[in-house]
Amino acid sequence: MKPPPSPVVLEYLDLDTPALALPTSSLDSAERERAARFHFEEDRRRFIHGRAWLRLRVADLLGIEPKAVEFTTVGERGKPAVLSPVGGSLLPTGTVPTFNLSHSAQHGLLALHAGGLPLGVDLELARPFERAARIAARHFNAAEAAAVATAAEGAEREAVFFRTWTRKEAYLKLTGLGLPGGLACVETGTEAAARSLRVPAEHGLASAWVTSLELPASTPAGLLAALAAPCAVPVDWRRG
Ligand SMILES: CC(C)(COP(=O)(O)OP(=O)(O)OC[C@H]1O[C@@H](n2cnc3c(N)ncnc32)[C@H](O)[C@@H]1OP(=O)(O)O)[C@@H](O)C(=O)NCCC(=O)NCCS
Prior knowledge:
This protein is α+β, with helices and mostly antiparallel strands. The protein folds into two domains: 6-116, CATH 3.90.470.20; 118-234, CATH 3.90.470.20. Helices cover 29% and strands 22% of the residues. It has helices at 29-37, 41-62, 132-139, 142-150, 155-175, and strands spanning 8-14, 71-74, 79-82, 98-104, 107-113, 120-125, 195-197, 208-212, 223-229, 235-237. The longest helix is centred in the first third of the chain and has 22 residues, at 41-62. The chain is globular, with a radius of gyration of 18 Å. It binds coenzyme A (COA). Coenzyme A (COA) binds next to helix 2, strand 3, strand 4 and helix 5.
């Protein structure tokens, strides 16, 4: 029997006031150019912090300096990925770590897998959203839309809506299709529990799995998150 995959390491970070020293000067020219294009200083700062954080964690895994980490993209919609290091990696030869990052306002969530399992994560801050039932009716699968519509208006409905949204977006980020893939392309469910998904053949995955995440107690209230991977995978929250 195949052994279970090693855990996906998850970490939350406040991108406005990060609780760790970030190597912000490690960004490459493409990242610096992108940072310069943000209209608002707040968005620029969050992007820089997010990229420096990602570089730091990938560098830790590879045993190289954050500025030596190189990124590429995969697929037509530009899913970011680590470029195979030329040499000196701490990981077994040929193993390239995978990651996926999500942010909602100043809140960041990073998922990292040392064994190279494709990942998708999404983080959302549940908030008042009057159009929840309308958006769900238009963009979710029928059973999901019905669950949103029948939830009590207000906080309960918003929780169901954003939980479902995070599960769908995590799946779309796993495949790299992103939102143009269509929120209704797979039924990811409204419950928090893990489920195996029926994946359309054209998505290029033999199987997929999604789960809502239980965030550590120290994480700000109101955040909802989900993780998608090709198969059931244990998770480890990184602290400190
Ligand atoms: C991927 C996507 C769903 C992310 O939306 P978002 O609201 O920014 O959500 P998140 O904060 O969860 O994710 C952002 C991170 O996802 C990652 N990402 C970018 N493209 C991705 C893709 N195709 N698949 C998976 N992850 C992707 C990046 O790390 C990005 O972080 P960065 O902005 O710091 O580089 C969205 O950008 C998308 O659909 N992209 C594909 C097509 C596209 O570019 N369309 C134009 C906008 S609809």
